[in-house]
Amino acid sequence: MPEQALPGKTGRVSMDTGGYSRRRFIGTGACALAVAGLPAAARAVTNYKGHDVIVVGAGLSGLYAACILQEQGLDVLTLEGRNRIGGRVYTLMDVPGKPEAGGEWMGANYARMIDTANRLGLEMLGPDEASDIREWCYRIRGEYILASDWESHPLNPTEGDDRRILPHRMLFELSHKNNPLSGQPLDAWITPEFARFDIPQTHYLKEYLGFDDETIRLMNVVIHTDHMDNTSALHEMRRYAVGEFNASRALANAGQPAWVQIRGGNSRLPEAMAASLNNPVELNKTVYAFEDKGEEVTVHCMDGTRYTARQVICSMPWPVLRKVKFTPRLPARMERAIDEIDYGTSIQVHFLLKKNFWELDEMPGSMWTDEPFERFGVHHRGPNGEATSAVAFINGNEAYKYDFMSDDQVSEYTMRELERVRPSLKGALEPIGIQSCHREVHGGGDWVFWRPGQVGQFAAHMREAHGNIHFAGEHTALMERGMEGAFESGERAAVDALLRS
Ligand SMILES: Cc1cc2nc3c(=O)[nH]c(=O)nc-3n(C[C@H](O)[C@H](O)[C@H](O)COP(=O)(O)OP(=O)(O)OC[C@H]3O[C@@H](n4cnc5c(N)ncnc54)[C@H](O)[C@@H]3O)c2cc1C
Asked: Is 414 domain-assigned?
């Protein structure tokens, strides 16, 4: 399926580098620390005509690897299949308020990412200033419920103090109870000690935490996998353990916001990283095959071009890698992992707002629901917190049905559903485009997730090189997740490549 472009997009990358210079990346930051103590890369003068390293993918993981390798004096070329930099980090620069359509929030634990942004001269803004979705109203089993009424509402299935937890927080807060990974090292999730939790999350919530079906149903509404039945409890436990680490970093940095974004849009970070590279990132270079001949690797692109390097770092998401040919073939376990490991699905439908519809029914504009559109959020990203645009954001199981709709059908269906559920929305919305990594050729989904049994089978092996090919990407991170996981993986792959160069 072709990539989705929002109306008004030129389809070309905006290379507004904001004045970032190549030299500005090079310095003494986290990348330098990552490679401290390594032997200086053996960059002996040879007649070799290829590159030292080719990085495939100009998302955060690939770009961070490229920056580290360049800093260490290697000749690095980055190939990117899309016509833009950033991968799953994608700010909708042409939509009022510039909402994020991909990686959105950086936690206080995002050390590499924040350090890189600082060194590239980018500014951060916290949730108050980002002034995004503010307050939800809830629509559950056809009934509207205000946040203030939830605790005593008859549709609230929980007991005791849990009744204060608002529906959109239930997944996170209830799953987190008695988390066996709490206080453990961040990589504990792959150790044998916790293997007994590599079971369906639904089973864990019922048998270990004693939640009833309705509580679990509400927890399952907005899920970043596809369904709790198909999600390893270890995956969710790890998510909360990383969240806990973020909270502890936030406490340690008192006075700093716990969550930040890049001022002017998160895409500015990967664009600045790309601009700091000596070899410009080559766009529209979709790689379909790797041929490792021992002394060098040939990378084959869809447009007929070929590139060679001593080593390759491949940061493509795994669902994309299913279609890529490796010579020699990947080990059987790696092939199985690539075939079987999935990413969470989601689809976003973006709208311009033609009127302040919430003034008509006097409820918060944003809705969290068990209706097919799940979440409808009004972005308040104007200079004084004004409403700027809105998004319907569908995650998990519900997102699959949209695979059978064209982009226009997605927008029409969602708008019809929204107007059916909330009459004040009639005439208030103008669809401006959809965004879904799951639908994109170079995407595959939002975040990696682990099905029951997969952690034990695959998690310890995701980082193994195949000959001269190293693998990066958030799916290979051991400690962090999301955007910081991408940085962690890029650093690890770069160090692996340096050790061999
Ligand atoms: C909607 C959404 C919300 C999110 N929110 C958050 C959040 O709030 N916080 C957070 O930390 N994380 C968030 N994430 C996750 C985060 O964005 C990703 O984990 C991270 O950006 C992944 O970086 P990566 O480099 O591993 O992969 P990608 O960004 O996917 O990079 C891979 C690159 O490879 C390219 N590529 C793919 N196939 C080929 C090919 N055949 N040839 C050449 N190039 C190819 C792709 O185009 C892409 O640029 C979110 C993601 C989504 C989608």
From this structure: yes
- Ligand 1 centroid to 482 CA: how many Å? 8
Least Cα distance to 78 among 64, 88, 92, 98 occurs for: 64
Tokens for 246, please give them.
Answer: 């973020």
Ligand 1 atom index nearest CA of 348 = 1
Q: For residue 182, how far is its CA from the centre of ligand 1 (angstroms)?
A: 27
Q: What is the pLDDT of residue 3?
A: 30
Residues 386, 389: Cα–Cα separation, whole Å? 10
Can you give the residue range of the structural domain that contains 236?
164-218+225-252
Mutate which of 260, 262, 286, 316 to test ligand 1's pocket (most atoms within 8 Å of Cβ)? Answer: 316
Q: Are residues 233 and 269 in the same domain?
A: no
For residues 396 and 370, the answer to whether their CB atoms sit within 8 Å is no
Provide the angle, in degrees to the nearest 10, between the axes of the packed helices 233-252 and 167-175: 100
Closest atom of ligand 1 relative to the 105 alpha carbon: 8
> Does residue 155 form part of some domain?
no
Quick one: average pLDDT of 165-170?
96
Q: How many domains does the chain have?
A: 3
Residue 291 Cα to ligand 1 midpoint, Å, equals 25
- Give Cα 146 distance to the centre of its chain: 30
Mapped onto helix, strand or coil, the DSSP state of residue 181 is coil
282 and 407 share one domain: no
> CB under 6 Å to ligand 1: residues?
56-62, 79-82, 87-89, 102-105, 285-287, 315-317, 320, 346, 437, 442, 446-447, 473-474, 482-483, 486
| DSSP, residue by residue, 28-94 | SSHHHHHHTTSPPP--------SEEEEEE--SHHHHHHHHHHHHTT--EEEE-SSSSS-TT--B-TT
pLDDT tens digits, residue range 325-354? Answer: 999 999 999 999 999 999 999 999 999 999
